[in-house]
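#dry-run=false #mode=assembly
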Amino acid sequence: MFKDLDPILHSQLRLAVMSLLISVKEAEFTFIREKTNATAGNLSVQIQKLKDAGYIDVIKKFNKNYPQTICKITKGGVKAFEEYVNSLQSYLGKE
Amino acid sequence: MEEKELNEKESLSLISEMIQKAKSSFHESGTSAILWGSVTAVCGLLSFAQVQFGFSLGFDVWLLIFVVIIPQIYIIIKERKNKLVKTYQAAATDNVWLVYAISISAIAFYQNIVPGISDKLMLDEGMQLLQKNIATGEVKDYHFFIPSLSSVYLIIYAFPTIATGLINKFKPMIWGAVVCYALFFISLYTSFKYDMLMLGLAGIANWLIPGLILRDRYNKNIAC
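#status=ok
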């Protein structure tokens, strides 16, 4: 019996964001937007969903009077990501 | 990026692609390494030249190190603020260099404080060290000094460079540190004059050359 894939992570943009954040300590919003080629509006919505799920922390601050949004993965996010990858691998292994 | 239903293979492929993008996103500018390499090379080579050619600049040239600390701190703060991403490697490397800064400062204090304190502690015990010229029989005061401390500096120079090279898999820094360790072994057998020459060469091998390579890569990446 396969485990259901986490619906929060099983979305293209949210999975891309989590894959970026799992590889780095923290990343700024513009960096994530550049790497995912997402629109600012869509990315903001998906980041908020990841934050609401407790998978990422979002820190808002100012740098030279410009707002900055820093995102970093939480311990819960790392665990969910690992479980998601394990589930994917078990699906592929059974094919 | 468009929202679409992913199958398992596409999901794994997306994860792998994003991890690669994140890994290739961080590029060190090399500014700090160039700055430290230049000042160490100038200080070491000038110290050597003063003894070799018998002239004096009239001040301790190594004080330039402290002059460089101010722009160094400015560069670190500026680069940190402008970084859009912080990798785990960068965080580990920052900590290595912080430990280096503490260690090198501590050794500078040790070098300047321990000889004087040792003299005082001996005098408190009612003792004094004397040196005798066995040819003339002349007896003079002997003051504590720390022999071949430049060798210790060479080990300390190599430590953050090799750690940074290994963490970031950056061979020029690994080789620079290897050169520094080789200079350390040579310095065990050489006089102060050549120790100064080796400190200068260590600055070039350890920081200046890797820093220039980093700068070249950074500029190419910016141009892309």
